[in-house]
Amino acid sequence: MGAGDFIRTGRTKGGRSAIPWVVLALWVGVLALASPFAAKLADVQHDRVTDYLPASADSTRAAKLQEQLPGGESTELVLVYHRDGGLTAADRTIAREQLARIAGDHTLTGAPRGVPSADGTTLMYPLATNEPGTDEDERDAFVEDVRDVAHSRGGLTVEVGGTGALATDASKVYESLGGPLLYTTVGVVAVLLILIYRSPVLWLVPLAVAGIADYLSMGVAYGLHQTFGTTVSGQSSGIMTILVFGAGTDYALLLVSRYREELRRVERPYDAMLAALRGCGPAVLASAGTVAAGLLCLLAADLNSNRGMGPLGTVGVLCALVTMLTLLPALLVLLGRRVFWPLVPAYGSTPRARRSLFAAMGTSAGRRPRTVLAAGAVLLGALALGTLNLPGAVRQQDAFVDRPESVVAMETLAEAFPEQSAQPVDVLAPAGRADAALAAIRDTDGVADARRGRTAAGWTEIAVTAAAPPQSAAETATIEALRKRLPDSYVGGPSAQQIDLADANARDRLVVVPIVLVSVLLILMVLLRSLVAPLMLVVAVVAVWGAALGLGGLVFGPVFGFEGTDPGLGLLSFVFLVALGVDYGIFLMHRMREESLRGAEPDAAALTALRTTGGVIASAGLVLAATFAVLTNMGLVQLVELGFVIAVGVLLDTFLVRTYLVTSASVALGRTVWWPGRLSRAPEPEPAARERQFA
Questions:
Q1: 3-class state of residue 138 by DSSP
Q2: Element (H or E) spanning 401, and its range?
Q3: CB-hemisphere CA count at 13 Å for 64?
Q4: 0.90 exceeded by the pTM?
Q5: H, E, C per residue of 30-41
Q6: pLDDT (tens digit, 9 = 90+) per residue, 28-56?
Q7: What SS3 class is residue 2?
C-alpha cells in the first residue's frame, strides 16, 4: 500500500485529511526539541544512599559534612585475604605486595593496617581514599582497579568489600535498568500485542508510539530535574519507562478496540477515529488523571526517592496519554483499515457472533451476586494474611539477588571477626567538643573501637567500630545509643543510613497513604457523579493491595529465598496498585454509567459493560502485569519484590476484582451504586424482569 492509499483512506469532507499529517509533523518537531534533553537524563541519575534519604536525616547530614572535610567524601574498602587451612607467610607477602601496588597507583588516606582473625584464616585491610570524591563513575573505576590488583591465586581467596564496593556492585544493577530493562519491556509488550491483535502489522504502531512516549518522558524528566531539582534515580527512571509502556499500551488497547467498532459503523477512518475518541477519550483522560494524581501524592513523602518517584511516574503516564491520544490516532487514520489485516473491519459488517467469556462470567456473577461477593472477599482476606509472613527489613548485604563480591567479602568477615563489625559508623562531632565526644563514644555499650579522623569547617570525623555485626539488632541499639549520648553530633555510615531509610519510609506511609485514598476518592466522585461507586472501587483496590502483599509474604522467603523486604515496598506498591487498579475500574464503571444513561437497567448495564470492556481490560491487565514483571528479572531484591507485588496485584484486580467482585457488587446494589446521583433515583426493575436478564 503506497502513500496515496494512506491519504485516500483518511480523506473526509472539508479537507480534514491533512490533519493527521499536521499532527505527524508536529510530533517530529516535538521529538527534535526533546532529543538533546532526553540524551542527558542518564547524566543526572544518581543512586547513592544519600540521594534516597531525606535531607533532615542524621546520616544525610553526616555525609554532607564529610564532603566538606579535606579530600571530600571518602570511599572505604576492605580487602579480605582468606585461606581455609590458615594463611601462610607467602599469603601475607602477596597481601603486602598488592597493597603496595594499590598505594602506589592511588592516594590512600593513611597506611592500610592488616588485622588478622583469631583463627588465622583471614586477614583484612581496611583502606580509604578521597580520590573519587562524589563522582560515582570515578568511584566505580577506583573499585574495579583495586579488584584488578587484588585477585585470588593458588588457594588464597582475595575479596574486595566495604561500602565503596557495595555501592559499585549496586550501580552495576542500576545500569541494567537502562538498556536491558527497556529491551526486555519492549520485547514482552511486542509479544503480547501480537497475540492480542493477531496482526503482523498492527502491533508495531502502538509499540512504536510507546517508544516515542518513553523518549519524550526522558526529556521532560531531565527538564524537571534541571528546573526543580527533582531526584532522578535508577529505580524511578526505570519505573517511569515501565509506566510509559504499560499505561500507554493500555490506552492504545482501549482506543484501538473502540476504533475497530466504529470502523464497522462509519465509512471513513477519520470520522471513525473521531467517534472512537469521543467514546473512550473521557475514560482514558480520567484514568490517566487518576493515576497521575495518585503518583503526585508522593510529593508529600520525606524520602527523596519516594518524592522523586511521583513526578517521574506522572511524567511517564502523561507522556503516554498525550502520544496515544494524538500520534496514535493520526498514524492509524493514515494507515487506514488495512492496518488490521488479516482481520479487517469492513464498513457495514458485523463481528462474528461468539459467546463471550466475560459475558458468561458476568452472568454467573449476576445470578448470585452476594454469594460471589462474599466468596471473593474471603479469598482476598485469606491471601492478605500472608503479610504476617513477610520477612523483616532487608539488610544491605542481602539486597542483591545474586551475591556479588562485596557481599561475599562481608560474609567472610562476619564469620572470621564475630567479635566486631567490619563496617564503620561515622560520627561528625563539633570540633570544639571532639575529645569529649570521643570519650563518650568509647564509653558507650557496644563500641569496640573509635578513632579520631579529619577536622575542618568546625567538625571532626570519628570512625567508630561496633562490636556487633552490621545491621544487627545489637548494632542498631549501639547507633541509637550514640545518637542519644551525642545530641549535638551526627551519626552516619551505611548502617545508620539503613535505619534512617526505614524510619523515613514508616513516616511516609502514615502521611502518603491517606492523601492517596482521599485524592483518588474525590476524583472518582467527580467522574462518576456518585459516592457509593467510588467507595466500592477504592475498597476493592485496597483489598487487592493487601492480597498481593500477602502473596509476597508467602513466596519471598520460602520460594525466592529473600532474607528481608525493602522498607519502601508497602508504600510504593500501595500507590501503584491503587492508582492503576482504579484505572481499570474507571474503564468498567464509565461504560456501565454510559449504558445506564441510555436507559439500561442496573443488571443489564453491568453485564453490557463487562461484555464490551472485559476483553480490553483483560488484555490491558496482562500487558501491565507483564511490564512490571520485568522488574523481577533485575538484580536487586527491592525491584524484584516491587515488580512481583504489582504484577500479581494487577492480575488479581483484572481477573477477579473487576470481573467478578465489582460486577457482583454493582448488581447487588442496583441503582444504589450511583447514589446520590440522579441515576440512583430511577425505578428498579421488577424481580421477574431481573431474572430474565440472566436466564
A1: helix
A2: none
A3: 12
A4: no
A5: HHHHHHHHHCCH
A6: 999 999 999 998 988 888 777 667 788 78
A7: coil
